[in-house]
Every structure is written in structure tokens, then in C-alpha cells.
Structure prediction request, 591 residues.
Amino acid sequence: MSGQKSKWRQILPILSLAVFGLFWLAPLFWTLAAAFVPTTELLNGSPLDWLQNLHLGAFEEAWSVAPFARFYLNTIIWVFGLLALQLVTVSLAGFALARLNFRGKDQIFFLFLTQLMVPATVLILPNYQTLVTLGWLDSYQGMMAPYIASAFGTFLMRQAFKQVPRELEEAARSDGASWLQALWHVFLPVTRAPLLAFSIVSITYHWNEFLWPLLITSSVETRPLTVGLALLVQSSEIGAQWDLLSAGTLIVAVPILILIALVQKQFTNSFLSSGIR
Amino acid sequence: MPNQFHRRNRGGEANSSSARSLALPAVLQSGGAVAYLFLLPSLVFLAVFTLWPIVSAIITSFHARRGRSQIFVGLDNFERVFSDPYSQQVILNTVGYVTLSLLMSVFGGLLLAIFMNQGLRNIGFFRFPFLATIALPMVSVASIWLFMYSPRVGLLNDILGGLGLPRANWLSDPDLALPGLFVVYLWKQLGYFALFYLAALQSLPDDVLEAATLDGVSFWQKLRHIIWPLVSPTTYFVTTIAVLNSLQQVDHVFVLTQGGPNNASNLALYYVYEQGFKWFNTGVAAAMTVVLLAVLLTMAMLQFVYLERHVHYE
Prediction:
């Protein structure tokens, strides 16, 4: 009796979580269906009819209505270009804050803290004006500029570098290596995990970013996927073409879904640490 | 991504001839100068894109455009932000939205975490639905819900209809537009807050929770008297992030309602966009920016005080 009861005790939560999870994803499934099934079938047919009428027409059409290939390229350039720059700035700054002694450390630390308190999203207006002054509107460097210095990344790397044993550093230094060499040959190889964590957060965050790129880009050559999708959604000629809209939505979202399915565990941990951002 | 890192690092180790080119001039070998050099790139961008914009927003907020020049108008822009019925409604909407987000992130997040924590520690598969939505772009999420809310083909009305409830025209009903936006945010972000509680729950010793079960304590008693106090540091943390996070949400406003109908779903950051980039009232937009900055800095201050007092939790 009691054995059976405890068995149910174990299965029931898992079962209900699975059902709740499916229910939670219903909007995503509906979007999937709408992208692969012609709208008339979707509204009038049964799920069995849907399976018989799967097609890729909506994707072909979305791809031809909006220059998604170019938008992909733009997103990849801006997201990974930014990440490359960030990896340099956060490694250098994190290293200085963790391992070097210098005057004004506390003040500089506070400067980084300011960025944690004031997210760039809130500063769109003044930052736009700065870009106008610099002549960086409608450019990749303009999109990247507010994020090149990253307090979140700097603090993450500072924490990681602090944990590197002194002996390792001393060995490198006694070989006459410069600080830059020590950073490159000793510190960075043993801090891959935080570098990866930072990269995951940075990629997801900027792949998904919308308002800032929307404001400063004005041409097909710079617009990222998110802006392209929003313009597709809003263009009146598309209007109620739900299959097209759903296909566009998936085109933008699928790479990120694949990324987190691949690195689910690191993703979870990275986002826990990003809470401070 | 991981592979790329590994490759790059391994390459660095193996290729020692490239090491020589990394050497700095002898003058810079001592700690101080090197530190400034290492910090320089970050400091330049922090100064131009974090510090300067704060100062610049404050300056702009005291000015208005007259013809082609900016003139000093004192507190006029702030008066407009606080006394104009239009912006008053925006503030009210934002306060409501942020409050709802707070409740959702704390209570919804904790409940979902408890649910996710039930006897399946390492079954990541069951967490995927709640993680997937966090990682999706808000623009995609909003497009998905544009479809869900659609009066004709939307799934939501089908469900409501199936339950015998009245169908609604979600996004064009002034009473439903803001809650409609909130539901989108909840769907996307609930898992994010649950993650923090899940981490907190998993760091609790097993026997604490099991002992409570054996004594025949009801779920609510256990929640209130055992779990709630134990996760209180997380609750504080989640509260702060929830405010920060919900204040920054604007993409779904853009895609779903554009603040309408009749300003009913307008939020502070969308107002900044509207004033600054649609109607070119840069002074008013800057004033709202300054109000947001004040809120954020106050919160940071409160968090600082709290951490000072509760260091033993860290």
C-alpha cells in the first residue's frame, strides 16, 4: 500500500511538470504549426490534415519578402564582433582589478559599478546624441559602442582571476614574462569557464536586442534580425499573413533555441550569474 | 563557441614565438602603469557611454528646443512629466506593471521553482520549456503573442471559447492591453526568476525540507515557515532584478500595441522613445530618463545598505 503511494508521490510531480511544460510551450507549438501548415488548413483542418500538408512555402516567402540572409549576416557581425571586443576589454580590466595594485582602484571600481546600476537601455536618448556627434549612426561600431566596456564581464573575470593561485603567477613572472604574457599564457587558459559563461550571456542578450539597433540603424546593410522581424510584422501589406509572420519569428529565434539546447547547463549557470547585470 | 576558445587557447600555448611580440616596454612592467593601460579601453567607453550620458541627460532635461537653439527652461520638462495627464498615465501604467512584475517574480518564481525542484534534481529536460522562453528574443515572443491574441486565428480566444468564456479583443481593449503585455512578459521571464529560487532551494540541506514533510506539515505551512525565511536573501535579490528588468521592457510595447489604445499600455521607456524619437521633445524625453535614473540609483543605494547589513548571508 504505502509502497504504491510513494511511487505515485514520485511520478505525479514529474508528470504534472511535464504537462505544465507542454502547456507553457503551447504558443511556440502554435507558431510552429502556423509556419509549416497553410493558414486555411490550420484554421479548418484537423491536426491529421496538418501533417499531410506540411510545407516550407512560408519560409521561402519570408526569405524573399525581407532580406533575412543579410539580416543574419548583420546580426552575426554585430553580436560576435562585439563579443570579441568585450573579451579583450573585460580580460584586461578584470585582470588589473584582481591582480595589480595602483592608485585610484576604489574610484575605478565604483565607475564600473555605475554601469551595473544604470543599464544602457535607459540611456538610449543621450547615447543616440553621442553617436550623432561621432558620426556613428547606422554603423556596427555605433551599435556596439555602449556595450564594449562591460561591468558584468569585468567583475566576472576579476572574480575568476582572483582565484588563480599565486604560485602559477609567480612562476610565469620569474620567467621574465610581462603581465600581458602572464595573462595570456597563465590566466586565460585556466579561466575558460567564466569566459564561456560571459560569452553565452553576451550572445543571447545582444542577439535579442531590439530598441537600440532599431534607433540607430537605417539601412539593410546594418539592420539586425530583430529589427528586420519587427519591420516585417508591422508592414501593412503583410498584415494578417500569419504563416509568414510565424516563419519570420522562427527564423530569428531558432539559432538561440539551438544554442541553449546545446549548452543548457552552462546557460542556466551563466544566467544566474548575470543577475547582477 | 567552446571549441573555438579551446583552439585559440591551445594555439597560444603551443606557439611561443608569438609570445615575444606580446612583451611590453620595460617602463610599463611595474604594476601601476600596466594597470592603467589595461583599464584604459574599458574606462574610455565607460566614460563616453555610461558617465557622460547620465550628465548629458540631466543637462538636456533642463532645456527645450525653441526653433534651432536649446534654451534653459528650468524644471518645465519635469513639470510636464509629472502633471500632464498623458505622462501621468504612463507613470501609473509603469508603476502597475513593475508592481505586477515584482509579485510575479517573487511568488510565481518561487512556486515554479518548488514545482521544478520536486524530486527531479538533474532532469534538465523538464526545465527546457521555462528556459527556452528566457532565451527567445522579446521581438519574437511578442510576434508569437500577436498571433496568440489575434481575434480571428488566435489560440487564446479558442481556449477561452472552449471554456465557455467570452472572447476578447485583447490588444485593442484599453482595459486588457496592459495586462496583455504583462502576460507576454510573464511567459518570457517567469523561468528566469524561478532559476534563482531553484538555485537557492538546491543549496538548502535535504533534511530540512524532508523533516517538514514527515511531520505532516501542510504545504502552505512549510512554504511560509520554512522555505520563505530560508530563501529571503534570494527574495531580496530577485526583487531588485525584477524592478530593473521590468523597467527595461519595451520591445513588446513596440510590436504589440505602440502604447495604445489611447495610451493605455504606454510604459516609461516607450514614452522616452516616443517623446525623443517620434515627436522630438528631447527635453521631455530626457526628463523621463532622469526620473528613471533616479529610481535605479535609489534602488542601487537600498541594495547597498541591505548588503552592508546582511553580509553574513553572502
